[in-house]
Amino acid sequence: MSALDMDASGTLDVQKFIDEHPFSRYQWLILFICFLIVAADGFDTAAIGFVAPAVAREWTISTVALGPVMSAALVGLAIGALLAGPCADRIGRRKVLMGSVLFFGVWTAACVFASDIGQLTVLRFLTGIGLGAALPNSTTLLSEYVPAKRRALLLNIMFCGFTFGASAGGLVSAALIPDFGWRAIFVVGGIVPIVLALGLLALPESICFMVVRNWPAETIRRVLRRIADKPAIMASRFVVSEHVEGTRRAPVALILSAQYRPGTLLLWLAYFMGLLVYYTLTSWMPTLVRDAGFTLRQAALVTALFPAGGVLGALGCGWLMDRFNPCRVVALAFLLLGVAVWAMGQRIDSGLSLAFLTFIAGVCMTGAQMSMLALAALFYPTDGRASGVAWMLGIGRLGGILGAVGGGTLLAAGYNMAAILTMMSIPAFVAAATLFVMASVEKGSSGSMRSLLSVSRRRTDLPAQAPDGLGRLPDGPQERPPHSLPIREADFVRDHVQR
């Protein structure tokens, strides 16, 4: 039955509707704005690295003294993610996304007025909270507007905004800091998110969230018409076919329930290990290469190769995830990352080999880490998707903090480049093994993640009844039919697994 064909009760499945229609200009607009939000995150992350030396020079302090400033944003990122996910699952993705983008824009601009380390540390912490809330909600909002068969690739296109923003941060810093000082970077980094927050007024709320939360049928029809441009959509009742029980739970309780807990813990562990490797390499790679006997110029060139293949890795993983078992694709990327990092430690005597292996490690690292968000968005249902993605990000940030601090601790303890890189291959192998386990659980009973997704699911069948004359839903709770209907997202995962 076509998604436009309604049953006797006038019911339409919105996810099936999205899956059956071409990607519209309206959906491209949603993707573009979410891309810009992620780019703002990348800009901020890269620019602070260029700002630090200028701040240290103006305030006559050592760059080491700026350690709290650099780590404050990471702590804020973790807290922001943990807080924002449950809020978005309760009040909506769009509201929380607008608030978070505006929040980090305002506090970034406020950094212009910082006059000492303490003030700048607090302001960077507040900026981090906004940034931490923005990424999981842009991920969730976009994931609920894209067709299932292209979801991973389109999400990874959005995540490429981080690489774009990071590159822009370096270029803008090089252009502005010499003539206008380091405060100019925070002016640009503050104005752009504030403008983006206003741009979010053009975006709708998540269509799946609207159905689950019983929004008026006319509001849902209006959004669907912008996607498919079919004025004949006259359904009075909308549903989302997915793996979630009929009884609504608190978002965090849902992702930690017996049904989802195993997958949640495995996702947390894999993402934690990935960020541990990422932040260790990005924070300490120049120092490691320099201490291995290379010149400062060689160290800079080798380090620059690490993010150079990021877009290739992200798009490649996204394309493969939409065609094969997504868990195994990401696990394979982590496995290749571990091999490449280990090999880097064995070839420190050859600059050419080290450069090549660094590039390969960067392709695998970016592809695997960015794809983890797409994997989480695929795994969780609408009721807990924002919380699931956000909490994975929040827990993973702890790995990032450990990596940023741990690299310096290992260097201070006297470990050389070969030893540190060999140790860093272990978390990559752990992440790979974790996802292979996730892809192999209960393989004999109709595919991987079967026990994680559970055999019996109910579709969230929330009737969006025709509104009254004022465009509102009738008062009182809306009942959900007890019958079970097709599980499209779970079927999508199992289809990949059975290949």
UniProtKB/TrEMBL annotation:
It is found in: Cell inner membrane. GO terms for cellular component: plasma membrane. The keyword Transmembrane helix applies. Residues 477-499 have a biased composition (Basic and acidic residues). The chain crosses the membrane at residues 28-52, 64-84, 96-115, 121-142, 154-177, 183-203, 265-281, 301-320, 327-345, 351-379, 391-413, 419-441. InterPro entries: MFS (IPR011701), MFS_AAHS (IPR004746), MFS_dom (IPR020846), MFS_trans_sf (IPR036259), Sugar_transporter_CS (IPR005829). Its main location: membrane. GO terms for molecular function: carboxylic acid transmembrane transporter activity. It holds the Pfam family MFS_1. Residues 30-443 form the Major facilitator superfamily (MFS) profile domain. This is 4-hydroxybenzoate transporter. Belongs to the major facilitator superfamily. Aromatic acid:H(+) symporter (AAHS) (TC 2.A.1.15) family.
